[in-house]
């Protein structure tokens, strides 16, 4: 990629941010489309965000992503917001308009829904969902599932008050969907009863970290989606598979939230297969092909044989440790 005086600038802001795979994915897309554009990563604390956003727009940045812990701070800093950002109180995508204005968008929920359907061959609509982890990402996914027609949403969180607060919020924002908080002692039993399980706790991001749910929480016929994306198989995915459930990591959510952001910034159709290959190469060591990559197989973009899967316990030369 040749950087010129005309190069359009994009980037992700977060803290920490050096683990981010977004530069890889977006630069692969710009290069494939022959666009004179570059995407970089910047380590920014939440206290500096409100001042930095207009400064970056003034410097000529055309679009930004926000990751932990900046999504709520970006929401507070912006006045022009799309419906989803307003509903979630969170912004992960900022578009700089030609006049220098800043538009806040949220693509996390739609990114999750697309990836879930792609991985398991059917949408979350009509399914009962057990969601563990009610932080920023879990909250976006829980609300997205409810709005997409999930039959019921059960919320579990280490700090139970946080789950109760989300339950209350969802009763207001998603009336008509059955929502309940599950106390810690009942997680495994409640999880086994649900059709879909979403792991949205930031556990499993460090090699060797034990899963919060063991195989007793799963059964055949279930679909587990772990938002953690930096390993081919996370501890909770391994637990689900041992019990006969299907399992996927969060790489597809990263891909689709990024593809939606790309469209918002550029108005151009993103080269999704190529962006997927870039991410898969970073995490799996190679793009997935054939049965490995068949989204409708129900095996959730997982390598075909367990033996070929570098686990988060053993690590892999390509695994990215976010800490
Ligand atoms: P967050 O706002 O900091 O929330 C962290 C969540 O993890 C909270 O629910 C927290 O529970 C829980 N947690 C942390 N340590 C725990 C422990 N030892 N035991 C039990 N629960 C624990 O983070 P986030 O933005 O929601 O991100 C959550 C995960 O999703 C991260 O791994 C992130 O990388 C991933 N993610 C993936 C994508 C994607 O595109 N695939 C997008 C966004 C996020 P408490 O409330 O009790 O602290």
Taking all residues together, what is the mean pLDDT? 90
Number of domains: 2
Shape: globular
CATH class descriptor of the largest domain: Alpha Beta
Protein architecture, described:
- With 323 residues, the chain is an alpha/beta fold.
- It has 2 domains: 8-106 and 254-280, 3-Layer(aba) Sandwich (Rossmann fold); 109-249, Rossmann fold (3-Layer(aba) Sandwich).
- Helices cover 37% and strands 17% of the residues.
- It contains 11 helices and 12 strands.
- It has helices at 22-32, 46-59, 71-77, 83-88, 108-120, 136-147, 160-173, 187-193, 235-242, 251-266, 272-284, and strands at 8-14, 37-43, 61-66, 80-81, 93-96, 102-105, 128-132, 152-156, 178-181, 196-199, 223-226, 246-248.
- The strands form 2 sheets. Strands 2-1-3-5-6-4 form a 6-stranded mixed β-sheet, sandwiched between helices.
- α6 (136-147) links the parallel β7 (128-132) and β8.
- It is globular and about 60 Å long.
- Mean pLDDT is 90; it is low at 294-323.
- The structure holds NADP nicotinamide-adenine-dinucleotide phosphate (NAP).
- NADP nicotinamide-adenine-dinucleotide phosphate binds at residues 68, 108, 133-138, 157-159, 162, 200-203, 205, 212, 227-229, 250, 253-254, 257.
Summarize this, please?
The chain is of the alpha/beta class. It is built from eleven helices and twelve strands. The two termini are 29 Å apart.
Question: What's the SSE blueprint?
Answer:
Layout: E1 8-14, H1 22-32, E2 37-43, H2 46-59, E3 61-66, H3 71-77, E4 80-81, H4 83-88, E5 93-96, E6 102-105, H5 108-120, E7 128-132, H6 136-147, E8 152-156, H7 160-173, E9 178-181, H8 187-193, E10 196-199, E11 223-226, H9 235-242, E12 246-248, H10 251-266, H11 272-284
Parallel strand pairs: 1-2, 1-3, 4-6, 7-8, 7-10, 8-9, 10-11, 11-12
Antiparallel strand pairs: 3-5, 5-6
Helix pairs in contact: 1-11, 2-3, 5-6, 5-10, 10-11
């Amino acid at each position: 990629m040749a950087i010129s005086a005309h190069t359009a600038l994009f980037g992700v802001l977060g803290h920490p941010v050096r683990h981010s795979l977004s530069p890889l994915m977006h630069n692969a897309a710009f290069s494939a489309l022959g666009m004179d554009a570059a995407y970089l990563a910047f380590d920014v604390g939440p206290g500096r965000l409100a001042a930095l956003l207009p400064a970056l727009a003034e410097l000529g940045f055309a679009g930004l992503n926000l990751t932990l812990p900046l999504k709520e701070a970006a929401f507070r800093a912006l006045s022009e917001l799309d419906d989803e950002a307003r509903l979630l109180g969170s912004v992960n995508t900022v578009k700089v308009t030609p006049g220098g204005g800043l538009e806040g968008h949220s693509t996390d929920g739609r990114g999750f829904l697309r990836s879930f359907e792609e991985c398991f061959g059917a949408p979350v609509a009509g399914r009962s969902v057990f969601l563990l982890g009610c932080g920023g990402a879990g909250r976006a996914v829980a609300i997205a599932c409810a709005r997409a027609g999930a039959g019921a949403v059960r919320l579990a969180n280490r700090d139970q008050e946080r789950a109760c607060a989300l339950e209350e919020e969802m009763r207001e924002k998603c009336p008509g969907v059955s929502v309940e908080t599950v106390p810690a002692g009942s997680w495994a039993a409640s999880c086994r009863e649900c059709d879909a399980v979403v792991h949205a706790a930031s556990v499993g991001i460090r090699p060797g970290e034990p899963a919060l749910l063991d195989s007793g929480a799963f059964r055949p016929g279930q679909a587990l989606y772990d938002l953690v994306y930096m390993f081919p198989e996370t501890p909770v995915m391994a637990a689900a598979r041992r019990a006969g459930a299907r399992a996927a990591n969060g790489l597809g959510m990263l891909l689709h939230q990024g593809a939606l952001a790309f469209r918002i910034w550029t108005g151009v159709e993103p080269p999704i297969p190529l962006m997927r290959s870039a991410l898969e190469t970073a995490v799996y060591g190679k793009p997935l092909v054939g049965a490995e990559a068949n989204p409708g197989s129900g095996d959730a973009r997982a390598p075909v044989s367990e033996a070929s899967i570098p686990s988060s316990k053993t690590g892999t030369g390509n695994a990215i440790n976010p800490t």
